[in-house]
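Protein record
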Amino acid sequence: MKTLDSIDKLVEIISRLPSIGEKSALRLAIYLFNSEKEYLDEFAHTLQSLHQNIMLCKNCFALSEKEICPICENDKRDKSTICVTENYVDMLAIERTDEYNGLFHILGNLISPLKGIGISDIKLPELIERSKNSDIKEIIMAFAASLEADTTSSFIYRRLRDAGFTGEITRITYGLSLGSDIENADTRSLAKSISNRIEMS
């Protein structure tokens, strides 16, 4: 039996979301159809206003409702360290550990030629510019264990040194299993990976 075109379209849109297969998308589509109109109106309004209300912090590129995110403008944060993460979700995971109290820098991607992601697709020039601030004493690479993470970390290390950064460049220890995501790591293991970070060379 052929499903309705409107349902098919909704299923197709929902299934573009990460980790959502066709069956899950169909269940969600039916759930939305059965939902109250007030909920659907609120849901639609929230989606439509995402790009109006949220922007990237001009310093660290975290999601923010202002030009400068709450972490960057917090005077109680340690301004001498920058923790580099692949994305905003990884940054939130590190924040939840309560192990780190410095600044962040979100690359947006890891270098991955097989996926068509190159040097120009990561926010490295901005990191290098931030590293020229004499207050910065340490830059931490906080990526999950993967070939892409190793490639990106090594490239960033070389570029920072070439740019004259003389502070520590460290990476979190790989207590996380190969291929596991930082966002899915348990808080204790992630906190230990941060506290036991090692210097790169």
Summary: The beta strands are 55-56, 63-64, 78-85, 102-106, 138-141, 168-171, 198-199. The mean pLDDT is 91. The chain is about 40% helix and 15% strand.
